[in-house]
Amino acid sequence: MRKVYITGLGFISSIGNDLIAVTESLRELRHGMVQYPPFQKPDVPVKVAAPVRDFQTDTTDQEDWIFPARYSIRREILRGMAPHGIYAYCAMQQAVEDSKLTEADCSNEQTGLYAASGGSPFLLGHYLERLRKFGVMRCQPLGIVASISGTVNFNLVAHFKIKGASTGFSSACASSAHALGFAYDEIALGRQKRMFVIGAEDGNVESILPFAGMRALSLQTDPAIASRPFDVARDGFVGTGGATVLVLEGEEEVTRRKPKIYCEVAGWGQASDGHNVAISHPDGAGLRIAIENALKYSDTTAEQVDYVNAHATSTPIGDISEARALKAIFQNSPTRPAISSTKALTGHGLSLAGALEAGFCALAIKEGFMPGSAHITKLDPACEGLNIIRATLPHRPQVVLSNSSGFGGANVVLVFRAV
């Protein structure tokens, strides 16, 4: 098995749209939640979201979208994109620059791309309504590729001329963690030399508000306390969007190119709850097994883990399920590892979450800190016994776990190691 490293990162997120801003937000526990203007209506009980800044993508005509001047995107490219497509495109440009990749490095048979998104309910709804109102032949020619699940990989593979392995992943909030895990396999098994991994979501009314019907969203009106994983008073998650791109490379390419290395991807594990279509197993059974698998396949012991970036979304049921899984794994390590949920800062990015938080773990290892779990006023008693840190620790973790869980009880755990 070949070693795999993260050599490039790109972020468009609620806490920053580049490496410097994201790192500062994580260190300083600066959150991205606001009272979201589209939610400020009497018939909408949810008031808070964590939107992406510096982009305006709220119209159905892509040519009206506004994005930062540093990015140049041609009209014909924009026409096939969803809002999160433009986020992913910009994050991809960042990651390519950060890893110092040439066009030849990106476009060859040994470089692939795995991506995850839920599609764009915003655009899909618009195009279907247009079909019903004006007829089949008045549909936007690129409406399908701009709106359905897979739109991110369709666009990025075409526009960055990717010639290696490519596909999209759909396991709800575990999707981009799955993408990263299988991308690791492609390189570790020698099938590819380099993989781009992308998670992206619109983060707008249509992608967030339907979760209110599940009673999964926070009803808090104060952005500073709306997302508070592990707090006894948490009442649901805060929705967000954006994109994260990670560059994974094998040891041969790292030796050849000598790029900056954030960390090693040491391995991963997965398992399913087999319990409920929407609710985590009450004892965290699937997540516990996924952690055990990740530790086993990465040749890591529980005692070696310094930091866990928890999936914890700030929902009453999900946080406790994860806490029980973590207690089962780390019962013999009462002071380690440090545990936090960065969703207290970013909100929950759905299928983006796994890639976003993997990027945070890479930054934590490279820059030498462990971000705290913000907004905890009173720790839920069910979490007692876990080392849930409330302030950022100025220590470089050597081994990090990143947990992700999705609908149907899909659980993915990624292991990162300092080099």
Would you write up a description of this structure?
- The protein has helices at residues 19-28, 75-78, 83-99, 103-106, 121-134, 143-147, 151-159, 175-188, 205-208, 223-226, 251-257, 285-297, 316-329, 343-346, 353-367; strands at residues 4-12, 34-35, 48-49, 111-116, 166-169, 194-201, 242-250, 263-272, 307-309, 338-340, 399-406, 410-417.
- By secondary structure, the chain is α/β, with parallel strands linked by helices.
- It has 2 domains: 4-257, Thiolase/Chalcone synthase (Peroxisomal Thiolase, Chain A, domain 1, 3-Layer(aba) Sandwich), CATH 3.40.47.10; 266-417, 3-Layer(aba) Sandwich (Peroxisomal Thiolase, Chain A, domain 1), CATH 3.40.47.10.
- Strands 5-4-6-7-1-8-12-11-9-10 form a 10-stranded mixed β-sheet, with helices on both faces. The protein has a two-stranded antiparallel ribbon with strand order 2-3.
- A hairpin with a 3-residue loop joins β11 (399-406) and β12 (410-417).
- The model has no long low-confidence stretch (mean pLDDT 97).
